[in-house]
Amino acid sequence: CSQVVPHPRHEVFAFFSDIRNLERITPPRLHFKILTPLPCELAAGTLIDYRLKLCGIPFQWQTCIDQFEPDDFFADTQRRGPYRRWYHEHRFSDVPEGTLIEDHVRYQLWGGPLAWPLHGLFIKRSLGKIFAFRKQAIDTLLASPTPSSPAREDLA
């Protein structure tokens, strides 16, 4: 997924580096809750624990920030969660309109080839809806000249 927001890259990266914003850009139907004590400094090696529901089934999810390059890029890998493998890259680059945000996700389901019908019927569509909600939430939250953030509400 990709989108452009009308803010400088350092502001957009700061918004994404504040893990409290994950709850703000995740669909409410997932009942997403950060379990890691806050505030939490995002850096290479940071572990983040979450709780969420997929199809009403509760899951614990832990990700590790594997790579972290301030203002440019960070990547997280699932350590524990609903996928066999999950790798999510977040890239930020300057464009004339502001900042280009790119999300690249690679994942593997449990069950090998038997999981492909489930992927086609549900998982791919569900992830599409999650990222569509995320895009809309980011557009809304970052529509004003100064990104709103729980840590920076006085600027909103």
Helicity level: 25-40%
Largest sheet: spatial strand order:
1-7-6-5-4-3-2
Q: Whole-number radius of gyration? A: 16 Å
Put simply, the count of helices is: 3
How big a fraction of the residues is strand? 35-45%
Assign the structural class, choosing from mainly alpha, mainly beta, alpha/beta, alpha+beta, or little secondary structure: alpha+beta
Describe the structure.
- The chain is an alpha+beta fold and 156 residues long.
- It has three helices and seven strands, in the order βααββββββα.
- It has a seven-stranded antiparallel beta sheet.
- It is globular.
- It starts with a strand and ends in a 15-residue tail after the last helix.
- Mean pLDDT is 89; it is low at 151-156.
Q: Which features characterize this protein?
A:
156 residues, alpha+beta, 7-stranded antiparallel sheet, 7 strands, disordered C terminus
Layout: helices, strands, pairs:
Elements: E1 2-5, H1 9-17, H2 20-24, E2 33-34, E3 47-54, E4 57-69, E5 73-80, E6 85-95, E7 98-108, H3 116-141
Antiparallel strand pairs: 1-7, 2-3, 3-4, 4-5, 5-6, 6-7
What is the compact description of this entry?
The chain is α+β, with helices and mostly antiparallel strands and about 160 residues long. About 25% of the residues lie in helices and about 35% in strands.
